[in-house]
Write a structure and sequence with these properties.
The protein has 198 residues and is of the alpha/beta class. The chain is built from five helices and 13 strands. Helix 1 crosses helix 2. Keywords: Exonuclease, Hydrolase, Nuclease.
Length: 198
């Protein structure tokens, strides 16, 4: 039996290019989310989820997410997390130009929101290993740099944790102008909220 269906891709907000699939056909409408991270009210603003002034009738929603588990009952919003990280980074980097932050990001993509907001708010570019991975995301290129002489680093190497133990950044920097760096590490990870449920 054949049926014509319309498939609409909706932004999932998880990492660049991530989408949710909305399937619409004679037998109803289905939303398949995949991993997603939407801000409060963002789904309500998606015009393609609406028909006129009302939300489309969706018969089934398939949630395929790492965090669909009771231990992740409360995950702070992206805005709350950003506010906390901003306060920490600002208080640390304002101590001296030798106080630097290492963002211990375990994946290559998905942290663009953090990099852009830190750079805009603090007027400090984020050091990354290479810019070519962002070539198709021109909106972030102004906020990242390959110049290691910055106070915010998101550089990555396989032995990141070992590098940090020696109070040096993964890019190898340990000092500027002969002055040792004071490094703190921030690990932006949602997993933390499942490990520390209290």
């Amino acid at each position: 039996q054949k049926e014509d269906i319309e498939v609409t891709l909706l932004p999932a907000g998880h990492c660049p290019g991530s989408v949710m699939f909305l399937f619409e056909g004679e037998n109803g409408t289905v939303l398949y989310t995949g991993d997603f991270r939407l801000a409060k009210g963002e789904a309500a603003r998606m015009e393609l989820l609406h028909s006129g002034s009302r939300v489309k009738d969706i018969q089934s929603v398939y949630l395929d997410t790492t965090f669909c588990d009771p231990k992740f009952y409360h995950i702070p919003s992206r805005e709350e997390c950003l506010k906390g990280i901003l306060e920490l980074v600002q208080s640390w980097t304002s101590l001296s130009r030798y106080h630097v932050v290492w963002l211990n990001c375990k994946a290559a993509y998905g942290y663009e929101y953090l990099f852009i907001n830190l750079s805009e708010e603090l007027r400090i570019k984020v050091h990354v290993n290479k810019l070519d991975m962002f070539k198709n995301m021109p909106e972030i290129l102004y906020h990242v740099t390959t110049d290691r002489h910055t106070q915010i680093h998101a550089c990555r190497y396989p032995w990141d944790d070992d590098c940090f133990r020696g109070n040096r950044l993964p890019c190898g920097m340990t000092c500027q102008n002969g002055t040792p760096l004071h490094v703190i590490s921030i690990k932006p990870s949602t997993m933390w909220f499942g490990e520390r449920i209290k």
